[in-house]
Design a protein that fits this description.
Keywords: DNA-binding, Transcription, Transcription regulation. By secondary structure, the protein is mainly alpha-helical. Helix content is 77%, strand content 0%. The chain starts with a helix and ends in a 5-residue tail after the last helix.
């Protein structure tokens, strides 16, 4: 699963190959097919695990009762970490770019990742702005999620992590993020 995640983060879902994955982990392709009969099954499992792991991490951050600005610092650091790891993308972000090519089960898992992230951002924004309307918080959470994903994509494409950092600073200066 770890090798599959890294492969997709680096090259996208379309480049995911049972043969290459088996070679990377030192097993036969049939062994990978045994656990994941189709590429869609593997892709869905990768996205599901990525979402579950990310969700647990985000919940842990909230449980530590950090201030909204600190929570956002830690959140944007997650996306930055992927870039600093051989210029990789968020697994579900890169899969989203290939949405038309994804089997329905993978799409469902990618959608779940977005929903988990937006819901978490809404919870952080409630702490920052308890009097804001639910609609305003929801809209802003979606905007933050999209902005961070976009910053990651542009930085990756330019192979310049500094673009990501500058984008995040600009989002903060504009008041988008706490």
């Amino acid at each position: 699963m770890a090798a599959g995640r890294l492969a997709v983060q680096a090259h996208g879902y379309n480049a995911l190959s049972f043969r290459e994955l088996a070679k990377d982990v030192g097993v036969k392709s049939a062994s990978v097919h045994y656990h994941f009969p189709t590429k869609g099954d593997l892709g869905a499992a990768l996205a599901r695990r990525y979402t579950e792991t990310g969700s647990a991490y985000l919940e842990g951050m909230l449980a530590e009762n950090h201030a909204p600005a600190e929570l956002m610092d830690r959140y944007v650091a997650i996306f930055r970490a992927a870039l600093s790891n051989d210029n990789r993308m968020c697994l579900c972000g890169i899969m989203s770019a290939e949405l038309d090519d994804l089997p329905p089960g993978v799409r469902t898992e990618v959608d779940q990742f977005a929903a988990v992230n937006v819901a978490w951002l809404e919870r952080v924004l409630v702490i920052a702005e308890p009097k804001a309307s639910q609609q305003a918080l929801s809209d802003r959470a979606v905007a933050i999620f999209a902005a961070i994903g976009g910053a990651q994509l542009v930085a990756r494409g330019c192979q310049d992590i500094g673009l990501y950092d500058r984008s995040i600073r600009a989002y903060r200066a504009a008041g988008l993020m706490p």
